[in-house]
User: Which sequence fits this backbone?
């Protein structure tokens, strides 16, 4: 195992100090010294098999390129856990879905092997994207995370005729009923807006992969000018829901739901499953000094559109009917690449400016 000379020197100095202390202080200091200091935690949701397989999932590029060269046991969850001790970068796979994400992040935060008190958390994974806001292969930094599961739901075939959706808030009697209920139960979270804007400004000019099949795919989205753009970096808010939904009607609901819970401050752009669970766990860990939610970033990259293209049905769009498999899945690998390409710029900058970043989250000056 490789250790920097500085790390070894610090350990020796600490051991000399321990020898001069009383028993109780010695025990406390020994516990602190034994923890692995972590600067950045990379959170991926899946790795499609072996984390070292080339280009197979969200985690693989971080493993091979950072590199996260040491695999650690993580028996409590059975998920992938890797580290680069010299850089202070830890990487974890949560598993797909809110339940797995919540439990994995909580388990990691309570793991006595790590000092996460100063750590930045980069949640980086793929998603659907609203064609009103972006194109496949694009990357969106979120300021707001809204949970799409905590709700009442009446099947649309049984809802009142004057309702626009069968989803409506808990403790309310109809869709979007005002005033909005209190959000203390995990319905909505605001990330550090200064950190989100800093990450966006730092990465907004990153050139993202574009392919001929991606161009063919987005050409179907006539009437959606942003959906027809080459991939780009943007700011856009995220909704997390365990159901993999798709189509115009659900997309209308997602936009309304995000607007409702953020009181008009957020704009739905990306859709996936895990992030409300991950952030909720981090908030709980913050209560006991094991995480700092002001240091959390969410980057979602677009593997697919959340809405069918004009002339297609939602079912045809979801199942790739009318398109060749190559075109229907054109955004998948480029979105995985984009999550790394954009995310690594932020990670490298945090590491390069650690003397300042360890105490103060960066912001645009």
Assistant:
């Amino acid at each position: 195992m490789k250790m920097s000379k500085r790390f070894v020197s610090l350990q020796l100095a600490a051991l000399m100090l321990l020898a001069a202390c009383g028993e109780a202080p010695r025990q406390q200091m020994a516990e602190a010294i034994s923890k692995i200091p972590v600067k950045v935690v990379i959170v991926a949701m899946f790795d499609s098999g072996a984390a070292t397989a080339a280009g197979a999932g969200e985690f693989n590029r971080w493993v091979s390129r950072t590199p996260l060269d040491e695999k650690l046991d993580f028996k409590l969850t059975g998920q992938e856990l890797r580290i680069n001790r010299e850089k202070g970068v830890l990487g974890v796979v949560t598993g797909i879905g809110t339940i797995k994400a919540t439990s994995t992040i909580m388990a990691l935060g309570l793991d006595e092997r790590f000092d996460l008190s100063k750590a930045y958390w980069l949640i980086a994974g793929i998603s659907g994207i609203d064609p009103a806001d972006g194109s496949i292969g694009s990357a969106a930094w979120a300021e707001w995370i809204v949970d799409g599961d905590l709700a009442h739901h009446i099947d649309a075939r049984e809802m009142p005729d004057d309702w626009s959706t069968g989803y409506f808030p808990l403790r309310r009697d109809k869709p979007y009923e005002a005033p909005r209920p209190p959000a203390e139960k995990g319905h909505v979270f605001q990330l550090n807006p200064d950190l989100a804007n800093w990450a966006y400004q730092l990465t907004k000019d990153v050139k993202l992969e574009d392919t001929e099949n991606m161009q063919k795919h987005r050409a179907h989205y006539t009437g959606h000018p942003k959906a027809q753009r080459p991939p780009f970096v943007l700011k856009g808010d995220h909704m997390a829901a365990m159901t993999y939904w798709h189509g115009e009607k659900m997309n209308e609901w997602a936009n309304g739901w995000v607007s409702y819970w953020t009181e008009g401050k957020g704009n739905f752009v990306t859709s996936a499953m895990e992030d409300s669970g991950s952030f909720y766990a981090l908030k709980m860990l913050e209560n006991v000094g094991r995480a700092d939610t002001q240091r959390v970033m969410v980057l979602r990259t677009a593997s697919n559109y959340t809405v069918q293209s004009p002339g297609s049905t939602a079912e045809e769009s979801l199942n790739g009917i009318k398109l060749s498999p190559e075109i229907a899945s054109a955004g998948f690998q480029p979105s995985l690449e984009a999550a790394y390409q954009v995310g690594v710029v932020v990670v490298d900058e945090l590491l390069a400016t650690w003397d300042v970043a360890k105490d103060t989250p960066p912001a645009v000056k």
